[in-house]
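TICKET: design request
STATUS: open
ATTACHED STRUCTURE:
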């Protein structure tokens, strides 16, 4: 087995993007807590990513992250390498009613580009923090629309550095879930909306902004909805019913404003967040018989 110092020396020879050992990962997540990762790489471009993959051992753990708006990084950190797709993969191209965006483009930027070009149907993306890669992986959605409705195709590369094209049908997209073949790294996605008056689309973006400000703790350190809505129920109603609103464990709290949002009130650890979520799940299970499923991804090792 090659040793990690040797691999790092190899990687650093070609890497043009940000490459760091023992990088503080959790503090860059929306929750602003959690551990480090063995290696963090933010590729400068596709070639840089392929060069990395050619050197990084195929049987070592590798994870891809975007904006970390849906992710708790556990306190013990993440083993192996984390690739973050960010602004180097954020190009957005508009052609007619189609929009092609890099996996690192912000959802908000895609919605804004669509509005500017007079493309309707992608407004829901405007209030969803994070990147296009994360949105495709989570089949992100809001206000009755989801990525599945507007995705034409996504491009990924595998660990061998080969490009793969996937249509929604190949991704088994369902409510907040996409089944991506293991080790695929999304690099781009193509969406299609419909022709609309740019002014009307812009008005819808404004409405969404106001709605979010009124109903969600968007200025807090949070990860969005903690639990997926179980079939026929709203997670927040179940949480409210069992006294979850405002419930605290250490520095973690279920938001008073939207009780399916968990927040780091200051000094929360990832373990506080997870323990709070599990306490809420326990209460809901015992009082209603319903098993809440985590929507937030919990990544890495416990401390
Ligand atoms: C205030 C707030 C409000 C929110 N509101 C909503 C909402 O209304 N609707 C909703 O659906 N979500 C919402 N979320 C959650 C979050 O914004 C979405 O899930 C978003 O799509 C996450 O994108 P990300 O880039 O941050 O993904 P990350 O959190 O970085 O990753 C999420 C998952 O995607 C995978 N992934 C990310 N990028 C790639 C890639 N390039 N290739 C392969 N895999 C990848 C990761 O491995 C991980 O499994 C909200 C979050 C916050 C903080």
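STATUS: resolved
RESOLUTION: sequence designed for all positions
ATTACHED SEQUENCE:
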């Amino acid at each position: 087995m090659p040793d990690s110092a040797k691999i790092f020396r190899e990687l650093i020879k070609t890497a043009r993007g940000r490459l760091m050992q023992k990088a503080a990962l959790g503090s860059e997540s929306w929750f602003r807590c959690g551990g480090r990762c063995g290696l963090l790489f933010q590729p400068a471009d596709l070639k840089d990513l392929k060069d990395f993959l050619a050197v990084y051992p195929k049987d070592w753990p590798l994870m891809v992250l975007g904006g970390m708006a849906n992710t708790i990084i556990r306190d013990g950190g993440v083993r192996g390498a984390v690739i973050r797709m960010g602004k180097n993969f954020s190009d957005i191209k508009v052609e007619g009613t189609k929009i092609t965006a890099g996996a690192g483009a912000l959802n908000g930027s895609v919605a804004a580009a669509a509005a500017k070009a007079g493309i309707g149907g992608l407004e829901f993306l405007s209030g969803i923090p994070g990147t296009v890669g994360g949105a495709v992986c989570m089949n992100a959605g809001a206000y009755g629309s989801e990525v599945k409705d507007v995705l034409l195709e996504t491009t990924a590369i595998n660990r061998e550095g080969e490009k793969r094209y996937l249509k929604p049908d190949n991704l088994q997209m369902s409510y907040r879930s996409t089944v991506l073949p293991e080790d695929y790294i999304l690099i781009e996605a193509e969406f299609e909306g419909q022709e609309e008056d740019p002014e009307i689309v812009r008005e819808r973006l404004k409405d969404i902004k106001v709605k979010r400000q009124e109903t969600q703790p968007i200025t807090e350190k949070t990860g969005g909805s903690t639990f997926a809505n179980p079939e026929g129920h709203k997670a927040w109603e179940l949480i409210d019913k069992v006294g979850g609103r405002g419930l605290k464990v250490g520095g973690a709290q279920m938001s008073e404003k939207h009780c399916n949002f968990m927040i780091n009130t200051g000094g929360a650890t990832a373990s506080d967040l997870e323990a709070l979520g599990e306490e809420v799940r326990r209460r809901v299970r015992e009082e209603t018989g319903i098993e809440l499923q985590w929507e937030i991804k919990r990544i890495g090792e416990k401390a």
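CLOSING REMARK: The chain has a mean pLDDT of 97. The chain has three domains: 4-87, 89-201, 218-299.
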